[in-house]
Structure to design on (646 residues):
């Protein structure tokens, strides 16, 4: 699904990712861990198509298509979804209207019929309860005045409604209390299937107690220096990153 | 001055006398609006009599064309509409005491010209103790044949005690006009008036002087919505005269091409517990220019008062220009005040967020522009008016790239 070959990239004339290689296939769940500032978010922003992140070398392929030539909306309609580390508040844009527009844009591009408002409100409300948000969110503006936890739940709600194929979760577990972490983890686990794939960026082992990752990678100084399974994450949680240097 | 009553003649002579020694200067109020081209224009009226091209007026609207009331007001029995000349002659509802008393004559030379060459205008009295749910629509338009003189337009609104209602003042000119409007609004005690000004004047050059005196416990909410304008200079003079009087100004300007809209808003807090909120949003495209200059003065007798000013500008073109200057003059320690201004392009992070969810860049931009506008539109407390204005605005936004 996603093939990263010898990828080097950066922002503001500074190289951050150095010669990264990573392959994510359908049905797989990958985790990237690493210290702050090692390039984890650079990688996710690069995949999602944020302007300013420059590919300096290597390849970034999604279903064998070069992502470099695709706009953020084209990436989204072809199945890529990034749960933002810091979801931006957009006062004045109603959450439900935003998501109906997003879901319908994607459905339309995939040749499916668009949801009418009545149908969408039902689906929206059903998914609100799955992520533990109340119905007041039908009337609220996107992320406006949301608590940190509500923002992360809202990201997962978007994932459930958009039904993407490749999901990048950029520190979705940060800032969540124990109950919220459980709700979100259950929602992710339920959504996980043999037809989609995940790349989770995290600092903590605790979310992995609920999820069963297939691969855990350590990103340090812009390079993937070690890959393993869930046990690697547990070792990092206990011992930190010092032993890898 | 033929046909004018004595008070109007005296006022007119007084204005002429001040004009003789009045030197126009580009002070703060006029700093960014060049009117040199219009200095030699006359202010005498060029009355057009052939206004018969459309007599099928909507009965639900009060139609005024070139200062002349076009239809009988059968719909709103609680509104008395008379020419200012007749109203003053009979001193209807005590109007002698308020005509020309709301905006000081010497505020600028356009008010002086409007008064000096006064010929006609309308006095609208809204009976006291009336609460009107449905909005009252007044269509005030101007037709001109030659464009070598300003057309003087004059309106005097007088709201009796305990009146509560919504007024939509529609001003739409599709053809080129030069207008010098003086609109005075007098709110007696305990009135609550929502004043929506819908202005669509693509080819208009307009100087508006809008003044309001707000008495005890009265509330004025003004929503000036200006959709384009060749050269528009709006001056608002708000006098919070009575205790607990309040004024909420929520303005929106949409500018493109080489439009020029300049808003000067002066609020004077002249009593205790007075509140003013001034909020102006502008969207600028093309080579347009938008000016916001707001001055709120809290005098030393106005303890426990509040004054807030906010101006946000959304720039869609790198050739648009904004001048923003929110100003507070505070002469009392026991007050709450704030002011702020922002000017910028569409928020890139918000745009990326929407695009990352599959929304096209064009649609995402429009969503953000709508969101910017809706804060002002949402202050209008009537769904029909809101929808109507939204439709007009969305038509304008269609061209946003």
């Amino acid at each position: 699904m996603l093939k990263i070959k010898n990828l080097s990239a950066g922002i503001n004339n500074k190289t951050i990712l150095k010669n990264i290689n990573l392959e994510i296939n359908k049905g797989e769940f990958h985790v990237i861990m690493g210290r702050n500032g090692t390039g984890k978010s650079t990688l996710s922003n690069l995949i999602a198509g944020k302007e300013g992140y420059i590919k300096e070398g290597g390849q970034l392929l999604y279903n064998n298509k070069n992502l470099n030539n695709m706009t953020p909306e084209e990436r989204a309609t072809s199945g890529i979804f990034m749960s933002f580390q810091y979801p931006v508040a957009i006062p004045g844009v109603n959450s439900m209207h935003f998501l109906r527009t997003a879901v319908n844009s994607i459905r339309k591009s995939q040749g499916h019929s668009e949801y009418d408002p009545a149908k969408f409100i039902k689906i929206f409300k059903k998914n609100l309860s799955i992520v533990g948000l109340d119905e007041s969110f039908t009337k609220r503006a996107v992320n406006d005045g949301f608590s940190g936890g509500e923002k992360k739940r809202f990201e997962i709600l978007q994932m459930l409604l958009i039904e993407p194929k490749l999901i990048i979760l950029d520190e979705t577990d940060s800032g969540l209390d124990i109950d919220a972490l459980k709700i979100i983890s259950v929602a992710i686990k339920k959504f996980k299937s043999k037809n989609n794939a995940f790349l989770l960026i995290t600092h903590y082992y605790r979310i992995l107690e609920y999820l069963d990752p297939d691969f855990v990678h350590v990103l340090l100084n812009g390079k993937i220096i070690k890959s393993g399974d869930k046990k690697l994450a547990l070792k990092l949680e206990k011992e930190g990153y010092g032993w890898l240097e | 001055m033929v046909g004018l009553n004595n008070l109007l003649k005296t006022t007119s002579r007084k204005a002429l006398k001040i004009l003789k020694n009045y030197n126009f200067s580009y002070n703060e109020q006029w700093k960014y609006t060049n009117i040199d081209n219009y200095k030699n224009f006359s202010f005498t009226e060029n009355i057009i009599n052939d206004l018969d091209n459309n007599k099928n007026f909507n009965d639900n609207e009060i139609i005024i064309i070139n200062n002349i009331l076009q239809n009988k007001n059968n719909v709103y029995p609680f509104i008395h509409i008379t020419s200012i000349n007749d109203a003053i002659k009979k001193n209807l509802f005590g109007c002698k005491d308020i005509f020309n008393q709301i905006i000081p004559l010497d505020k600028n030379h356009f008010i002086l010209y409007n008064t000096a060459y006064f010929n006609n205008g309308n006095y609208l009295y809204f009976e006291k103790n009336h609460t009107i749910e449905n909005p009252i629509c007044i269509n005030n338009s101007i037709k001109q044949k030659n464009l070598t003189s300003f057309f003087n337009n004059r309106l005097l609104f007088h709201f009796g005690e305990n009146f509560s209602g919504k007024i939509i003042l529609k001003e739409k000119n599709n053809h080129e006009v030069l207008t010098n409007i003086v609109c005075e609004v007098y709110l007696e005690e305990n009135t609550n008036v929502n004043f929506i000004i819908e202005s669509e004047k693509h080819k208009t050059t307009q100087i508006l002087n809008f003044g309001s005196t707000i008495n005890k416990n009265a509330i004025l909410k003004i929503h000036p919505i200006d959709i384009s304008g060749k050269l528009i200079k709006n001056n608002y003079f708000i006098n919070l005269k009575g205790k607990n009087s309040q004024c909420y100004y929520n303005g929106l300007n949409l500018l493109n091409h080489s439009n020029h809209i300049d808003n000067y808003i002066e609020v004077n807090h002249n009593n205790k517990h007075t509140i003013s909120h001034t909020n102006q949003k502008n969207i600028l495209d093309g080579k347009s220019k938008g000016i916001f200059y707001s001055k709120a003065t809290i005098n030393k007798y106005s303890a426990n008062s509040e004054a807030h000013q906010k101006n946000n500008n959304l720039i869609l073109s790198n050739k648009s220009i904004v001048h923003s200057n929110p100003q507070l003059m505070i002469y009392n320690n026991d007050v709450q005040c704030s002011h702020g201004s922002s000017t910028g392009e569409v928020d890139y992070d918000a745009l990326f967020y929407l695009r990352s969810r599959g929304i096209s860049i064009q649609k995402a931009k429009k969503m953000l522009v709508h969101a910017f506008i809706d804060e002002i539109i949402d202050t209008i407390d009537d769904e029909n008016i809101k929808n109507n204005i939204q439709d007009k605005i969305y038509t304008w936004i269609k061209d946003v790239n």
Observations:
- The CA atoms of residues 84 and 122 of chain B lie 5 Å apart.
- The two ends of chain B are 52 Å apart (CA to CA).
- Chain B has a mean pLDDT of 90.
- Helices of chain B lie at 6-20, 84-90, 109-116, 348-355, 361-377, 383-397.
